[in-house]
């Protein structure tokens, strides 16, 4: 996972103007408007954090663009939304933060997150911080890692976006080149233990290694059990972000090495089988069954024992579809052994239909031996319909009741197995097997 290094090295001395030129045109238009509004409000505007890191690494940009405002971020967000026809949301006056959603080409939405630059004070480990307005330099100091403590000043010249200075007070660019993950101060993980989970994600994605001081701090934070002071909801948010990564198994491998996994997902551990499952999904061709974060979660948890799965379900406030998937995993593994290549379509359908699409997609990548069957089920069988429905059967004289349900089932099976395909054949089949046959 180190392909970014060469790009990072190449860009390291790129002038900020050249970095901004990498932004999509639509982003530049919005940022030029924001910069011109900021100037009219005597505020300074900075592009900050991960987006600057990604520009340096030539990595794909995330969906959020973070902006720090030395001035009134809420007023700027409101004016920006009005000027560009964006949607103002997530306004938190107490924190001085607001977001502006903008529709871009292709119908997707980019979120511009504006926050007043601030200092943060943590009264106790893991608690949410108290904040106060402060210059951009202090704002960078409150961040997690050197590679995220970067900022480019945004200006507008004749309506066009232009760059001011690039701030890199902690040597983030150098750390990107040498592959170092570095916390900014000694108490960083005590203040916010979730930074360990952010760090492991970032390290896996960019191929970074904690520097000795960061590694020692992680060790101390684990020994002091700081993560247990954080709500399970916040931990879950971080875990879900890991599932957005194309290779969450890499994050898990590092989390194991750092000693994090037992604290957040006891019983889970990286294995070659788990990595193979995730690799099959990541390398799947375009027409293969798709899998988003939910399927990735299923692939990570697929062979976790039932007690550990139940403990996860009990601990975290999982979204309904994730809890549902977790419940299905033991049955899914059992069904895998029943799927054999000689089974007729109807039998495959009977075995797999009780499971959700996400669950069968998990099975598809988890069990390569039966991938042809699960692929066929997902692509074709699931959507196949018998030529007659319940109303048709009633018109043929079958009264509503159990027989109607059984007939629909049997007719579907006959259709899946290719014994019936037209309405006429279906009617003949019903007459022969149900109406004239034994009831
Ligand atoms: P990603 O590419 O994963 O979205 P990101 O760095 O953009 O990464 P965000 O969660 O959007 O991640 O955060 C934006 C910036 O805010 C970070 O780059 C970092 O500077 C800062 N930040 C976010 N969370 C924390 C935290 N818990 N502690 C300190 N700084 C943080």
Main sheet attributes: strand count, strand direction, barrel closure: 7 strands, mixed
Classified in CATH, the superfamily of the largest domain is Beta Polymerase, domain 2
Strands ordered across the widest β-sheet: 3-4-5-2-1-8-9
The share of residues in extended strands comes to: 5-15%
Structure summary, number of beta strands = 11
Second rung of CATH, namely the architecture of the largest domain? 2-Layer Sandwich
Radius of gyration: 27 Å
Shape: elongated
List bound small molecules.
Answer: adenosine-5'-triphosphate
Structural class: alpha+beta
- Provide the CATH top-level class of the largest domain: Alpha Beta
Low-confidence stretches: none
Number of H- or I-type helical stretches: 23
Mean pLDDT score, rounded?
Answer: 93
Return the CATH topology of the largest domain: Beta Polymerase, domain 2
The CA-CA distance between the termini, in Å, is: 64 Å
Portion in helices: 40-55%
Can you tell me the number of structural domains?
4
Concise overview:
With 439 residues, the protein is an alpha+beta fold. It has helices spanning 4-11, 16-20, 25-40, 50-57, 73-84, 136-141, 172-178, 188-191, 194-206, 212-223, 232-243, 248-258, 261-264, 272-282, 293-301, 306-315, 320-336, 345-352, 357-366, 371-379, 390-395, 402-416, 423-435; strands at 44-48, 64-70, 87-92, 97-103, 109-116, 118-121, 130-133, 151-157, 160-167, 180-181, 209-210. Strand 6 (118-121) and strand 7 form a beta hairpin.
């Amino acid at each position: 996972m180190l392909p970014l290094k060469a790009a990072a090295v190449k860009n390291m001395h790129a002038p900020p103007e050249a970095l901004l030129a990498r932004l999509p045109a639509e982003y530049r238009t919005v940022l030029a408007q924001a910069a011109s509004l900021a100037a009219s409000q005597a505020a300074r505007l900075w592009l900050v954090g991960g987006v600057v890191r990604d520009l340096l690494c030539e990595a794909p940009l995330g969906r959020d663009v973070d902006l720090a405002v030395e001035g009134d971020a809420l007023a700027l967000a409101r004016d920006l939304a009005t000027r560009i026809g964006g949607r103002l949301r997530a306004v938190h006056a107490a924190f001085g933060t607001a977001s502006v959603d903008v529709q871009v080409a292709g119908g997707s939405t980019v979120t511009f997150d504006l926050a007043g630059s601030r200092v943060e004070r943590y009264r106790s480990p893991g608690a949410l911080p108290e904040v106060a307005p402060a210059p951009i330099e202090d704002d960078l100091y409150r961040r997690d890692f050197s590679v995220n403590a970067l900022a480019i000043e945004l200006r507008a010249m004749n309506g066009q976006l232009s760059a001011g200075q690039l701030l890199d007070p902690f040597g983030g660019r150098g750390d990107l080149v040498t592959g170092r993950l570095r916390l900014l101060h000694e108490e960083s993980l005590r203040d916010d233990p979730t930074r360990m989970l952010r760090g492991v994600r970032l390290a896996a994605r960019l191929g970074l290694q904690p520097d000795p001081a960061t590694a020692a701090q992680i060790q101390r934070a684990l020994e002091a059990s700081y993560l247990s002071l954080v709500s399970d909801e916040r931990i879950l948010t971080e875990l879900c972000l890991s599932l957005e990564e194309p290779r969450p198994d890499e994050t898990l491998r590092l989390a194991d090495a750092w000693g994090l996994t037992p604290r957040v997902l006891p019983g889970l551990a990286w294995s070659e089988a788990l990595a193979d499952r995730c690799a099959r999904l990541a390398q799947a061709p375009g027409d293969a069954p798709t899998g988003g974060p939910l399927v990735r979660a299923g692939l990570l948890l697929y062979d976790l024992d039932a007690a550990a799965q139940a403990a996860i379900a009990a601990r975290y406030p999982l979204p309904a579809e994730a809890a549902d998937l977790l419940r299905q995993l033991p049955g899914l593994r059992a069904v895998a052994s029943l799927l054999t290549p000689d089974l007729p379509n109807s039998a495959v359908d009977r075995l797999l239909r009780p499971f959700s699409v996400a669950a069968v997609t998990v099975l598809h990548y988890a069990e390569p031996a039966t991938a042809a069957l699960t692929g066929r089920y997902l692509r074709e069988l699931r959507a196949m319909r018998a030529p007659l429905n319940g109303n048709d059967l009633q018109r043929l004289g079958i009264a509503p009741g159990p027989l109607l349900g059984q007939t629909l089932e049997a007719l579907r099976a006959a259709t899946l197995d290719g014994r019936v395909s037209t309405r006429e054949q279906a009617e003949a089949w019903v007459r022969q097997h149900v109406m004239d046959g034994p009831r």
